[in-house]
Amino acid sequence: MKVILSTLNAKYIHTSLAIRCLKAYSEKDFDIELAEYTIKDPVMNIVSDLFQRGADVIGFSCYIWNIEETIKVIDVLKKIMPEVKIILGGPEVSYDTDHWMKRLPNVDFIVVGEGEETFHQLLQEIEGAQKYHFVYGLAYRKGEEIIQMPGRPKADLNELPSPYRFAEDIPELGKRVVYFETSRGCPFSCQFCLSSIEVGVRYYDIERTKSDILYLIDNGANLIKFVDRTFNIKRDYALEMFKFLIENHRGCVFQFEITADIMRPEVLDYLAENAPPGVFRFEIGVQSTNDPTNELVKRRQNFTKLSRTVTKVKQSGKIDQHLDLIAGLPLEDYNTFRKTFNDVFALGPEELQLGFLKMLRGTGLRIDADKYNYTYMDVAPYEMLSNDVLSFADIVRLKRLEDVLEKYWNSHRMDHTVNYLIEREFASAFDFFQEFGDYWEGQGWQKIGHQLEDLFTRLQSFLESRGTKRMDMVLGLMKLDYFLNHKYKPRKIWWEHALEKDDWSSYMKMALQHPDALLSPVVADFVADASKESAGGENVAESAVEDGTQTAVPALYATEAHSVSGSQQTQPYREIIPAFASLKLGEKELQKHAVLDVLPFRLDHILSGGSPLTAEGRTLLLVVYQQNEQQKPLYYTMPIGKEIAAI
Predict the structure, then answer these.
(1) Are residues 356 and 416 in the same domain?
(2) Could you tell me which residue ranges the Radical SAM core domain spans (predicted)?
């Protein structure tokens, strides 16, 4: 009997842990093949491939993102392969199972909940006596009747074989995301989440977990996402795993879902001191900062402690943080959500994900939907459309905000510009993204695509339409961001007035003649801080660049870096930017690999948080490309004044 385990992933780079767990458990007794597709693949392509594989049994892992496309595949499969047994499993069909069996006559069985043992026993019965009433955790058909068996006790995780060691996965490990679990279950009871239904947390043996991770790293895995609902629920376990990953990462990146308000100070201290930059990513579900909302949905959260954790992690500069919000929770109207958004944005996450409440089958919130007058989509993903305090019109506006947030914040295309606008020109971050989102849709831009330069011209159009002050300063920051968005020297610019050729040559000669005067961002910040805090600021500035390598400022702004100004506060990690002089670039190299412009204000002053009113002056901005292994552009600045006339 040939068995195919299949699923439709959201993207090609994703992999399904679920079907690998099932195969690992049953492959000793059955011929099992994995077949992964995406929700973008044409149905006929999927059906044709499955048909040619010639299976007797096909199982599909079902989620809100793939259920409707999976149903289309099943309906066609049954027309051309009427004898094939179709099995569904996964969170989307583990609740309201009777509904699914009635809706989907082409489905023969549904495995409910944790599937390894149930699926294995079901295969034995399909191949054998077909006594399905012996299989706990199963829904099946008996003539016209639908039978639902009692649930199965939870498995001992350490008796389950590893799903990470299939030889056929090795060639793709470096190209795709590896999903990994060290535990199952969740200790919390959030009423909008399926994880709240399973009581308690079970762990795999930590030595087995370490062995599997080493196997994946040894075979080329580049990104491992831990699917544990709260990776840090056990302090000692999390700390031991963090230490192990730090010692053995070899360039692999690890992403975790953590609960920030229970993160222990000693764990944070350890990570701040020892975590390699860029190896860890934290996903933190904040969802709402509205206390009545959190209380109603049984979400225990201390936002003060959460903020402390997020801030400390950010100050280390070593771990990117992805914070999640959910619009549409009970008692969260448009105004309170504005506060939630601004509360969380103020923490400065690298990504802020704005999601909309999904009324998932089996959750307490869906069961109580009528209490709050929820309307929502009848089919997956069951997104809410309105409730008693948030209208559909509000949802539409928040969708516009979400669109611009993704394009202009989470993409990190204009960090300098957006930060300045939020700090200086708009009442709050929410107001900037909302006002821009409304303008974006009003221009009809949501109906057409965009190139990189379009993002800049459209932002300029929006800002000019509202009479934004100091557009010369905003445009200067936009130029900086535009230059930093390129891997190679850009061939075109989006602004109208470029430097004249003679001026360009003059400034380039000045840079070549005075290379030590061009400061990297790190040194520019350092000099700005020192000049504010030290009476001898000029001497500090000179010492920072006198050796021509700028190694006087270390990668980590620790106490030794700031001792010259008397500050003992640890500062965020910053990459070492080589001194411009140390690049030893000649005129030909600069012609090929550099761009420059003159900004009508003191850029270093603005980037260090100074007021536009005190940023008078001009800045020579020089950006060079292709000068490091990471292929990141490097930029340098030099304040310029009357001395430029002498060149």
Answers:
(1) no
(2) 172-411
